[in-house]
Amino acid sequence: MSLTIQERIKDLRVERKLTLKELEEQTGLSSSALGSYEADETKDISHYALIRLAKFYGVTTDYILGLTETKRHPNADLADLRLSDTMIEVLKAGRMDTALLGELVTHSDFVKLLADIQIYVEGIAAMQIQNLNAWVDVARAEIVEKYQPGENDRMIYLLQSAHVDEGEYFTSRVHRDIDAIMEDMRTAHLGRSDSAPKNSAAEELKQDLEEVARFNGSKLEQLIMLFCKQTKLRYNKLTEEEKQWLARIAQKSELLKGAVSQRGKKRK
C-alpha cells in the first residue's frame, strides 16, 4: 500500500531518528509546521518547505509527493540496471510489493543468500560433493573388509550418515539465510506506519469494550462511544448536528430495545 505524503514525511524523519525540534534546528523550518505536515489533517506544504525537506533528506520531491517510489534515482537508465524484459514487465505490473523486494535485495546478507542459491542451481559444488561421498564409500569399504562389522554396527551407520545430499544441504543453507533476513526486516518494520498494529483487532475490541463498560453514561451514549472507537471516528470533531444524527441512528439499534434511558438520572 502506497504511503501518504504525511507518512512519507514522518518516516523520513524517523529514519534519521530526529525529533521535530532537532529537525527544526537543521532545516530552519518551524517544528509546528513540521508537525502539521505529518498530521492526519495536514495543511498544504509550501514549495519552500517541500524543496528544503527533499534536499535535507536527499530524496526527490516526487517521492515526498507520492508520485514515485524512487527516492534518489528518478531517471535511472534501465540499461544500467541490466534487467531482462521479463523482469521489467514483472516490476511494472504492480503485482508485488517492490518496496519489500528492495529491502530484501539491499539486505547485507542477500548476496550470501543468492550465492547459496547459485551454487546449487548451477551445480557448482556438485563435483566436490560427489568426490566427498566417494571418499566416504572407499573408507566404508575398507572398514567392512578389515573388521567385518555387523549390519547394526555404529561405525557403519556413521559412515552412511556422512553422505552429503546436495539438495538437502543447500535447502538447509538457503532456509537459514532467508530466515535471518526476514527476521531483520520484520524488526525494522516494527512501529512503522505501513506495518500492522501491535494489537490485533480482537485485542483492540476488548480494550474498547472495557473502556466503554467503565463509562458512566446511558446505553445510547455507550453505544455511540463504542461505534466511534471501532470506526476511528473522532467524536469531539463532530458538529452538534452530526452528533444528533448519530444518536438518532443509534436509537434504531436492536441493542437499545428495552433499555431504560439513564439520561436525567442522578449519577453516583
How would you describe this structure to a colleague?
There is one protein chain. By secondary structure, the protein is mainly alpha-helical. 62% of the residues lie in helices and 0% in strands. It is built from 15 helices and no strands. It has helices at residues 5-15, 20-27, 31-38, 47-57, 61-64, 78-81, 85-93, 98-106, 110-121, 126-147, 154-161, 166-189, 201-214, 219-230, 240-250. Helix 2 (20-27) crosses helix 3 (31-38). The longest helix has 24 residues, at 166-189. 6% of the residues are buried.
Keywords:
62% helix; flat; mainly alpha; 15 helices; 268 residues; disordered C terminus; single chain
Rounded mean pLDDT score: 80
Regions with little confidence, pLDDT below 50 for 5+ residues = 259-268
How far apart the termini lie comes to 49 Å
Shape: flat
Percentage beta strand: under 5%
